[in-house]
Amino acid sequence: MALPPLPPGQLPAASPPPATAMSNWRKDHLGASSVEPLPVVIIGNGPSGICLSYLLSGYTPYVKPDVAHPHPLLQRKLTEAPGVSVLDQDLDYLSEGLEGRCQSPVALLFDALLRPDTDFGGNMESVLTWKHQKERAIPHMVLGRNLPGGAWHSIEGSMVTLSQGQWMGLPDLQVKEWMCRRRRGLRNSRATAGDIAHYYRDYVTKKGLGHNFVSGAVVTAVEWGTPESSGSGVRHPGPLFQVSGFLTAEDQSRPPFSLCARNVVLATGTSDSPARLGIPGEALPFVHYELSALEAAVRAGTVSPASDPVLIVGAGLSAADAVLYARHYSIPAIHAFRRPVHDPGLVFNQLPKMLYPEYHKVHQMMREQSILSPSPYEGYRSLPEHQLLLLKEDRQAVFQDPKGLQKVFGVALVLVLIGSHPDLSFLPGAGANLAMDPDQPLSAKRNPIDVDPFTYQSTHQEGLYAVGPLVGDNFVRFVQGGALAVASSLLRKEARQPP
Ligand SMILES: Cc1cc2nc3c(=O)[nH]c(=O)nc-3n(C[C@H](O)[C@H](O)[C@H](O)COP(=O)(O)OP(=O)(O)OC[C@H]3O[C@@H](n4cnc5c(N)ncnc54)[C@H](O)[C@@H]3O)c2cc1C
Q1: pTM of the full structure
Q2: Which residues does the annotated region (Disordered) include (predicted)?
């Protein structure tokens, strides 16, 4: 793998960046003299980026010859091309007719191959066997703000996953086995976020992918033009992308980098840019958007069982996690949300009670502990259908109730947990023109990036791909299908490259 030299004025500062991977990267590539662009740059090092790196590193999935898939139609199709890697097969044809908890046909296909009967409560092994065929590897680089594992390094480590632990795994390394080897156990078949973050880091190491990863690399701009000559005089059939940003260094310096690539994969997730309320006082220092702020305040003693309550805004699972956390430490909490408690759209109404008793407990608290009734849950008050209007410097929170009356509460800290938006500010026009509806804001749920369902290439820009929540695949179990589609498309493209 060779990278173009950095243009004059963009050489990184002399101070070494912190991560070992980064040092290796600089040593191996920044001094390279070739001007050939990199085939692929992946922006984002969460489960999507890791899974794609695995597939681009030559790890190739084949269907085991001696097993039958429980889905009869899929089984029949799988037997039609014995010995042909899934990556080289027609993903449109294979995935046709599959149904499940995701809209993407390729996500359903890959999930069905990795976890054949999991939705029927079964525990059948994957029908895939993996061969490491180095000759099929496509040189690539995975850039990420944090350590490999993406959002999982920002989620409070003691939180238990919503998904079953086995659904959090990446190809050919079962979470259960990995946990066993580390003498850790699943809790009610779910894992802690801390274990999962550790698993992803370990996966990169165990599969020998580390040299592709640059941790602490923040991309600030991706630009592209029409097909043009590279410095080597070789004409490239597609557009060339310029990916620039900075490395985070221990000494707080920010050495810049700039890479040239033939393909760019957006795997940046949607957790980096928390949704805001847009009310006066939101910028005050006691207003936060991550549960970790509550943890830090508990540790520092700025909130305690004797302090003013913590105000938790939101009615999703992150807000529920915050309620549980506050309850665990006996911290008084006011929980405000705009919807009525019986709204069928509330996430709690979509979770089976048996599997998620803790979230149903929170829902019960939300229902029973309205501000007007006496409390069975000491220290907790719920404010359904309340709108936060204003936060004052003296830590007064002003609400409007469903009848239009104003109420004021003194609070120690405010946690706004009302979701997050994708942050594609590094793209021209912040990527707005890539969305399904370019006139509406980009949103994982309502308006994802528009991609071809079988290649995950943008329908608007050749060579630009997107995976994960950015395209509406919101669970780790399903982001992997996007990686399969991208790898399959890139392998076809590479096969067409002139020698
Ligand atoms: C609180 C919480 C609980 C969840 N629970 C579950 C669960 O139980 N089960 C489940 O399946 N899913 C769960 N999810 C969703 C899951 O986290 C995502 O589906 C998954 O992490 C998506 O993977 P990804 O690789 O696409 O993106 P991410 O994991 O979000 O990783 C993307 C990475 O890219 C980095 N990045 C972004 N912009 C840049 C840039 N400009 N330069 C460099 N790096 C950048 C980000 O910092 C991030 O680290 C949960 C999410 C949250 C927030």
Answers
A1: 0.88
A2: 1-24
